[in-house]
Amino acid sequence: MAGNKGRGRAAYTFNIEAVGFSKGEKLPDVVLKPPPLFPDTDYKPVPLKTGEGEEYMLALKQELRETMKRMPYFIETPEERQDIERYSKRYMKVYKEEWIPDWRRLPREMMPRNKCKKGSKPKKAKDAGKGTSLTRTADVLKKIEELEKRGDGEKSDEENEEKEGSKEKSKEGDDDDDDDAAEQEEYDEEEQEEENDYINSYFEDGDDFGADSDDNMDEATY
Amino acid sequence: MWMDEIALRLPSTMTQAEIKLCSLLLQEHFGEIVEKIGVHLIRTGSQPLRVIAHDTGTSLDQVKKALCVLVQHNLVSYQVHKRGVVEYEAQCSRVLRMLRYPRYIYTTKTLYSDTGELIVEELLLNGKLTMSAVVKKVADRLTETMEDGKTMDYAEVSNTFVRLADTHFVQRCPSVPTTENSDPGPPPPAPTLVINEKDMYLVPKLSLIGKGKRRRSSDEDAAGEPKAKRPKHTTDNKEPIPDDGIYWQANLDRFHQHFRDQAIVSAVANRMDQTSSEIVRTMLRMSEITTSSSAPFTQPLSSNEIFRSLPVGYNISKQVLDQYLTLLADDPLEFVGKSGDSGGGMYVINLHKALASLATATLESVVQERFGSRCARIFRLVLQKKHIEQKQVEDFAMIPAKEAKDMLYKMLSENFMSLQSIANLIERRQFETKENKRLLEKSQRVEAIIASMQATGAEEAQLQEIEEMITAPERQQLETLKRNVNKLDASEIQVDETIFLLESYIECTMKRQ
After folding, report:
1. Which residue out of A56, A69, A75 would a mutagenesis test of the B interface target, given it has the greatest number of B Cβ atoms within 10 Å?
2. Region B493-510 average pLDDT
3. In what side-by-side order are the strands of the sheet with B86-90?
4. Of A24, B90, B329, B358, whose Cβ has the fewest other Cβ atoms within 10 Å?
5. What's the CA gap between A105 and B372, in Å, rounded?
6. For residue B187, how far is the Cα from the chain centroid?
7. Cα B36–A34–B424 angle (5° rounding)?
8. Coarse DSSP helix, strand, coil percentages of chain B, rounded to the nearest 5 percent
């Protein structure tokens, strides 16, 4: 670009002064690499405040960051989960508590239509047989009928969810009896309307399903 | 209103900075799926469920889960629109408040010690909880830290909870109205949550009896134990929840009021003396509950009342108090104003002026840090000149619109730059962590192995062998990383203090117009 200057012709097709260089000024060398990601600055920053409070808040901040990752509100993507499962399975048992939203406080559309209940055993008769696999097909068909009647175009979503649900259910391993009892009781306590089923362990991490947990996809993926 | 002019003139890059920061915060706290949905709502405004799913290319199932989390944490609200369509809206500024969680929690610690601290922490971590749930969680956590055999009583935790409610640091969430069965129609698509002003700090009469429980040690085994028992759900007993449906949240506004008061008292202490600041602190304390968060002045307080409210053991005579009050009212900073003569003299704290001074001082120090002391000197002179002109008019609101506009614009720009700074800090921290991911993981593995070996009584020599799996240069690298991450984290906290001051001023100013 600068090579033609000596022939008396203007070397640039634009006004060099507009870019900030005065006429005849030596231009900076051509840079052959991208600028540094974190360049140095002219003025060094003032040192940070220190003190008991600052130190405490720092430790707290870092602790909270780790804690939040382990809470049921932290929803991992399938790729993330694989990483963490592999590592944690071998060295640290990280389990997440369940969280079930209070459905009464939420719009009705928030409730998942999936009929899948984790580890529901036929012998727990409390939920009037809705959870048993024998009645599942009948329920699914009934549900599809209902949705057709409503005709709100969400049938394909629901069907997919039902299918995923049945896949999940057949893959589930053993469950702790106690926990299941707690779930069932939760279910009964909180459930007001008969026709809405929901996944009890909605926000639960699938870590505890024994050896086959790598295959066990708790959350439906599309 | 000319305030709107300013809002329109601000570059869209300001909103971009806010969005970027919200995205980083959501991702760190809730993961990428919640982040995707949250950021989408911040960008687009109010939207129904299906549109969100469609526009973000996310499954309905995942959108629902994300929204549940966001609503639980008071980051998204919903409204029923025409034809029963429910729309969801994100609260961008509330997302930014997540930066401040450590400060809220630490402040509670200073005021209500460990019990109070954990109550607020649980409320922030969970978004909202019933009182019975909080008490149980906190009692369990405190019991963990106590000596063997000792436990924390629910009653003690409840007492602290009540104190927090009385001083408005925690408040009730709007709740589902109890419907009478006279309404036979189909249930609405979404409940309309309501709360009565007078109920906001009303603690339900509960007789929570019990003690905290330690986690069984078998649940925490590391390294290769067969699957640990999943922890029981909080209601592992079969009793019904006594305060079912009554949820509580941290009252962030109340904390902000506290921070503002702290900043004012501190400024007075620096500029004048300890006694002056104690008088101001007393006046602020007297006005805590009676002053709204955006009021320009506190309610007038008489010198007699102030005298009676001084802290026990603070031995100054009434005459000395009056002298101090006069000095404070005469000070050019105008933090304290005299509003009348009855009751020995009526005084107010000029909250708006105080915030303006604090915000200005913040600006000055930022100019100094970023552009050097020469620029800071010029900046200070310019501001001083303005200040002298200000004194020639009685009321701050009578300042020529141009001056006030400029001031506000400066504050908004600086606020935007601070938000951008924090986003940069977070990105740098994540970058540093990612660069060293392999080494960090190795270090964590080694620590875990050592911990489990110690638990099973390994010998010193064996432990040493494992420790040496991390080489000396690697140790050095880890040290450096830790130091840098600490610096970055600490910087975030400190910049957020700047944001707080600037936003307090901005909010107060906007509301006045």
Report:
1. A75
2. 86
3. B47-48, B86-90, B76-80
4. A24
5. 53
6. 36
7. 40
8. 65, 5, 25
ipTM, 2 decimals? 0.84
Chain A 30-59, residues with CB within 8 Å of chain B CB atoms: 37-38, 42-43, 45-46, 48-49, 53-54, 56-58
Alpha-carbon distance B96 to B93, whole Å? 5
**Contact status, residue A33 vs residue A39, Cβ threshold 8 Å:** no
pTM over 0.80? The answer is: no
Task: Classify the C-alpha dihedral A165-A168-A173-A179 as positive or negative.
Answer: negative
A14 touches chain B (CB under 8 A): no
A88/B223 Cα distance (integer angstroms): 9
| Nearest CB to A108 within list B60, B65, B189 | B189
Q: Are the C-beta atoms of residues B198 and A65 closer than 8 Å to each other?
A: no
Can you give B97-141 as a three-state secondary structure string?
Answer: HHHHHHHHHHHHHHHHHHHHHHHHHHHHHHCCEEHHHHHHHHHHH
In the predicted model, is pLDDT for residue A134 greater than 60?
A: no
Angstrom distance (rounded) from CA A102 to CA A53: 36
Residues of chain A with C-beta less than 8 angstroms from the C-beta of B117:
none
Q: Nearest-CA distance from A8 to chain B in Å?
A: 42
Of B15-19, B141-145, B366-370, B399-403, the range with the highest mean pLDDT is B141-145
- Are B248 and B173 spatial neighbours (Cβ–Cβ below 8 Å)? yes
A18-32: average pLDDT: 65
Question: For residue B178, is it left (φ>0), alpha (ψ between -120 and 50) or beta?
Answer: beta
Q: Kindly list the distances between the CA atom of residue B339 and the CA atoms of B301, B343, B377, in Å, as whole numbers in the listed order.
A: 9, 11, 35
Separation between Cα atoms, residue B129 and residue B131, nearest integer Å: 6
Residue B474 tokens, joined: 């690697």
Mean pLDDT along residues B309-328: 91
- Helix (H) or strand (E) holding B47, with range, is strand B47-48
φ/ψ region of B327 (left if φ > 0, alpha if ψ in -120 to 50, else beta) reads: alpha
Share of chain B above pLDDT 90, in %: 54
How far is B364 from B376, CA to CA, in rounded Å? 6
Q: Which of A59, A51, A49, A60 lies closest to B482 in space, CA to CA?
A: A59
A74 contact residues in B (CB cutoff 8 A): 29-31
Nearest to B311 by CA among B281, B274, B343: B281
Handedness of CA A59, B141, B230, B32 (dihedral sign): negative
Q: Is B359 helix (H, G, I), strand (E, B) or coil?
A: helix
Strand order in the sheet with B170-172: B129-130, B247-250, B170-172
Burial B395-433 (b: 16+ CB within 10 A, else e): ebeebeeeebbebbebbbebbbbbbbbbbbbbbbbeeee
Does residue B26 contact residue B38 with C-beta atoms inside 8 Å? Answer: yes
Please state which of the ranges A36-50, B197-211, B248-262 shows the lowest mean pLDDT.
A36-50
- Please report the sign of the dihedral spanned by the C-alpha atoms of residue B73, residue B77, residue B80, residue B86: negative
Paired tokens of B3: 């305030």
Tokens of B103: 């400060």
CB atoms within 10 A of CB A61: 20
Q: How far apart are CA B78 and CA B193, in angstroms?
A: 10
For residue B461, give the 3-state DSSP assignment.
helix
SS3 B79: strand
DSSP symbols for B224-272: S-S-PPPPPPS--SSPPPTTTT-EEEE-HHHHHHHHHHHHHHHHHHHHS
pLDDT number for residue B372: 67
A71-101 burial, b at 16+ Cβ within 10 Å, e below that, comes to bbbbbbeeeebeeebeeebebbbebbebbbb
